Amino acid sequence: MPADQDKLRQWLEELERIYRPSASDGEREAAEWIVGRFGEVGAEARIEAETVHGTYWWPLGLGAALGALGGWLGMRGRRLLGALFGFAGAAGIAADFPPGKRPLRRLLPRRTSYNVVCELGPAEAERTVVLIAHHDSAHSGLIFHPALPKIADRLGLIEGKDTSPMLMAPVVGGPLLAGLGALTGRRLLAKLGALCGLGTIAAMADIGRRETVPGANDNGTGVIALLALAKRLVEEPTTDVRVILLSVGSEESFSEGIKAFGERHFPELPRESTFFLCLESLGSPHLLVLRGEGFLKMHEYPPRALALMDELAEELGIWLYPNLRLHNGTDGLEPLAAGYETAALCACNELKQPAFYHWPNDVSANVEFDTVADGIRLGEAAIRRLDQRWL
Fold first, then answer.
1. H and E: helices and strands count for the chain
2. Which one of 74, 178, 248, 321 is at 20 to 30 Å from 312 when CA atoms are compared?
3. 5-52+112-140+212-388 architecture in CATH?
4. Would the pTM of this model clear 0.90, i.e. be above it?
């Protein structure tokens, strides 16, 4: 049954009006709103509060500052101390990228984030399907300016490429250069590393001081997809799989919400009988299933999960933008790295980017609701197929 696009639009317009930074009172308000909408379609949901840090600009900025200090010390002949600071900054940044351990965050303040969990289907089922979206929204920043992908396209960095650029390479590379420059006594390397570190600090400070965007596409579309799927699953329940509809908080602070969910629930979700499907930014023109993702290391999605989604899309007559990989991270990265059968259902524009990414015009008026509806159809088809037979 096709999704009611008028209802999808109404839900999205309501959600985008909630100012909802990661781990904030607004994020809690959004979580309560989602619980209420689940209740309206006959599905009971709960909120799980988790302790997180709530940003990524502070840990990355801290690591960059260590690198810049290391480069400065190296230029002044303090080679061992400069190398120590530079390499410590690089290691801290690299470990902060999902699905890392994130040691720098232990030095930073903590706040409360709010995950929404809705469980449907037979509670005693041996198999589980988990669908993930997130309800917090992102800070903007000059590095997200929509002109930059267009410039990259003119430079030939997008056409013919199936993998997005490794945008975080300079962030971790600055402290690494500073450490190498200090260790070897090469002032130019140390200086370049220090300059890269200062550039990262400036970029992170810009992001931190910006307002949060409405987040209609990223990722209000995933949230309303969960609500539509809840309605369908209440009307026609599964018989052999339990379905968890999960809307996490603090995705925009490097997937802290799904990491906290994993620490709480992965031990009770067997890898051999649990399937994760991440729904991310479904309101761009072209639906796709990611082939892999990761900030520095590329984590490939498992062949069986990809085959399932590709087969179902073909059966439904849904065209998927082919063979894209992301040097970034969705909430699918945590269960993927934990060894689960996982797929990430996303959408992109003609520049292979999420439309209106982290920019103030990420509003419901710019969302492609036909793509959202196709994403809902494909998500439901995956649930129904896994209810009939496992992978």
1. 12, 10
2. 248
3. 3-Layer(aba) Sandwich (3.40)
4. yes
